[in-house]
Amino acid sequence: MANTALRGSRPRVVAPITLAFAVLLAAACGGGPPSPSPTPGPTPLVTPNPHLADPTTAQDVFHGLGRAGLKITTNTASAGAAGAAVVTRINATYLGWPLDVTQFRTSADLAKAVKWDTGAAPGKGEPPVTLAGYNILVRWGPWQTGARPAKPDDRQAAALTALVAALDRLLSPMRTRTVVPVQVASAPASPAPGPSAAPKATPAP
Q: How far is CA 58 from each of CA 30, 169, 176, 197, rounded to the nearest angstrom?
């Protein structure tokens, strides 16, 4: 009897897997939405170096002064004689005073023409401001034979600071000869010599 009932009974049917369980299973197996890709950072800006190469040209110096925001009016330009130390001289006006930029062939040629010590005050018959760097000589202000150089007024003193700062970025290190003190970057210090070996004492015989 028991066997007959067992044979006549129908097997149990397992309930089908629900859709929600299938979605969870797929997510567990890596089927989820892709993670967002990292956002690249901003590209750093490269600031061009305003320092000019030695030797440079008077025209490049004027372009550099213009980029620095100085209001300079160019008047005339003249070329030096063939084979002379001076290549070009550009005459301009800066805040009511004459400004000339002279280009020598080499910095050695300029060093021969400029004999004064840096930081010294100009004497009679000299312009109020003279600046030298590389092969470029810059003179600003009126000069008269036998007269002491004029001192700049308040506006010209501020303009002198702007002029020196702009030229210092272009031609540093510079030599200065001005009626009022100006601040420029110092020349790079030469490397100190290494310690020399101490002489060994010679044993007495």
A: 69, 15, 18, 49
